[in-house]
């Protein structure tokens, strides 16, 4: 059993779905992401150096699980 932490922003979500999910992504919040797919990342339009990507699909749900979380210094 483990915990995976991913820093999410609008760059992780496809342009066609970003407006749907942006209200769920608040600065400093900790969210849970359910109902997503993992796919191989093609070399075209690759944003990260990882062989897999998270695919946000219509049933994907993002909801806040912790409010008032400690702030992460983005400059570090």
From TrEMBL:
This is DUF223 domain-containing protein. The gene is A04g502410.1_BraROA. The lineage of its organism: Eukaryota, Viridiplantae, Streptophyta, Embryophyta, Tracheophyta. It comes from the Eukaryota.
């Amino acid at each position: 059993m483990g915990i995976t932490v991913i820093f999410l922003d609008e760059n992780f979500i496809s342009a066609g779905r970003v407006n749907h999910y942006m209200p769920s992504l608040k600065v400093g919040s900790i969210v849970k992401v359910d109902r997503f797919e993992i796919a191989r990342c093609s070399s075209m339009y690759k944003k990260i150096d990882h062989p897999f990507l998270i695919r946000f699909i219509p049933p994907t749900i993002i909801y806040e699980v912790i409010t008032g979380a400690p702030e992460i210094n983005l400059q570090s």
